[in-house]
Amino acid sequence: MKDDFHRILYNYLVEAGLNETSASYLNLTILLVIALVLAWFLDLIIWKVLRSVSLRLARKSKTNFDNFLVANRVPRYLAHILPLSILVELVPFGFIGFEYAAVIALKFLHVLFVVLTLYVVKSVFKSINDYLKTKPRFRDKPMGSYIQVFMIFAWVLGIFTIFAIITEIQVWKFFTALGAGSAVILLIFKDSILGLVASIQVSINDMVRIGDWISFDKFGADGDVIEISLATVKVQNFDKTITTIPTYALISDSFKNWRGMQEAGGRRIKRALIISQKSIRFLSDADVEEFQKIQLIQPYLTTRSEQINTYNTSNNINKDLAINGRNLTNIGVFRKYVNDYLQNHSAVNKGMTLMVRQLPPTPQGIPLEIYAFSSDKRWENYEYVMADIFDHLIAALPYFHLQVYEIPVPESVIAQG
């Protein structure tokens, strides 16, 4: 039947005055044009039908997964399958007398079919990834990494299939040859393999999630993780620049993840005032009386002074020298004041560690460190709370006859200024 129709068209062309060779080529061209136009027209009709059906389903369905299928052109790719299959069936019919060209055309169409299948699979999995991102439980998971891994295997299988179609060698023989070329393959896909292993470990150990604030000094990264893929992790720094980090660096190098702080009840304040050693001294009775005007530590001074006086009296301590017996110091009273001030500060989390401690003396002075946690973890508010605390403490130092250490400036520099 195929040959009969081919001969009808061929005989008509010969009768029209063409020689046999010209008639054969013109006959082939006409049949190819008819087949391509038919396939194009059929593709257009199927696409319009699929688009209409998919849009209606997307509007009526309760889930938005089908919306992502449409957005990622899955129906459009599916519309190509039937026209491509028809072209495969029409090749023997159109290429009668051109057997070698028919073989090449069939191989080309089979390769297109493999590529089309890969695009359909890619679009479906991209739709799955986009859909999972809308779910809170998957939003911070590197699902894109797993899809990339699957697509790598899919493309490798597709490439092997294409080679098998072109060379007419069975697919399993290509896989047999992988043993001999495994070293080369490992070298080519080294980063992908390392990224795959790292991505799995990062996910299983819950080391990094999308949205985490991480600091990675080696790569100059300090900001929020916005993307985790098979090979790289993208971090948007606080200056809005983007730093790209190899995924495997997350398990081979050290970095800081601030998620624990963000999930905890507060953000740590750890900063010291450097007190000049020359300003530290024992307190006299007149000093104690003066300091009792400070309401926050008045009860402490009253109780503590009575205890010290009782001890010194019962032990016949000679108080002609202040060093004898037990005494209050201005830095000790100030330390108590700072602790009480923090305990009464509304922005400090009282349920977490709160202490004022004296660090070892330095050539510059005595560091008095405040170790506490701000209830508000947002960066701008945290900085405001910390500045508010230290503004007050620096201004309070003179009331305790204490001074912050400052590097002396030569008089010549002052005169020039």
TrEMBL record:
Mechanosensitive ion channel MscS domain: which residues? 191-259
Indicate the transmembrane segments per the record.
Answer: 28-50, 77-98, 104-125, 146-166, 172-189
What keyword terms does UniProt attach to this protein?
Cell inner membrane, Cell membrane, Membrane, Stress response, Transmembrane, Transmembrane helix
What's the main place this protein lives? membrane
GO cellular component terms, alphabetically, are: plasma membrane
Which Pfam families does the protein's record reference? MS_channel_2nd
Q: Where in the cell is it found?
A: Cell inner membrane
Topology relative to the membrane, per the entry?
Multi-pass membrane protein
Name any one GO molecular function: mechanosensitive monoatomic ion channel activity
Q: Any one Gene Ontology biological process term?
A: cellular response to osmotic stress
Q: Which SUPFAM superfamilies match?
A: Sm-like ribonucleoproteins
Name-wise, this protein is: Mechanosensing system component YbdG
